[in-house]
Amino acid sequence: MTVTQATTVSDELVAAFARLVPQLSSSARAPTRAELEEIVVSPATTILLAEDDEGAIIGSLTLVVFQAPTGGRAWIEDVVVDEAARGQGAGEALVGEAIRLAGELGVRTVDLTSRPSRTAANALYEKIGFHMRESNVYRYEPR
Question: 84 exposed, middle or buried (CB, 10 Å; 0-12, 13-18, 19+)?
């Protein structure tokens, strides 16, 4: 298994997100080709892909890096590994590469959120070294 960065949007990438996003969220729709192209070209986002030994995409992660007045920050978003490939190290490899890239960019912190029901993912994040913050997470949904 290897981890690579998405630098272009191919039919395979579009199909992979169509397969992976429903495994991550029952309420989110898969991104369109145009939306994926916008993400790939954005200087603030990096899509990482886990590929099996045959080159098939089995997982993805989005790393968002930005500057705040208190220093560089990074967020890991939308980590998902195909159900058929879970437990083989793809999630750990994706998160490890995101942390490495964030470190190269000199960020102060790397944050992520995960629903409590995702017990395997939460255990992985704690194993890697993430810790629960004493913080409230708020969401506003403009209509």
Answer: exposed
Residue 139 has pLDDT above 90, yes or no: no
CA proximity to 64, closest of 98, 108, 95? 98
* Chain segment 13-31, per-residue pLDDT in tens: 999 999 999 999 999 999 9
Whether the predicted pLDDT of 143 surpasses 90: no
pTM of the model: 0.94
Q: Encoding tokens for residue 33?
A: 């080709």
Give the residue-averaged pLDDT of 45-52: 98
Q: DSSP characters for 9-31?
A: --HHHHHHHHHHHHHH-SSPPPP
Could you give the maximum distance between any two Cα atoms of the chain, in Å? Answer: 44
Cα atoms found within 13 Å of the Cα of residue 85, Cβ hemisphere only: 22
> What mean pLDDT do residues 57-68 have?
97
50 CA to centre of own chain: 10
3-class SS of residue 61:
strand
The alpha carbons of the chain give a radius of gyration, in whole angstroms, of 15
Cα-flanking dihedrals φ and ψ of residue 117, to 5°?
-70, -15
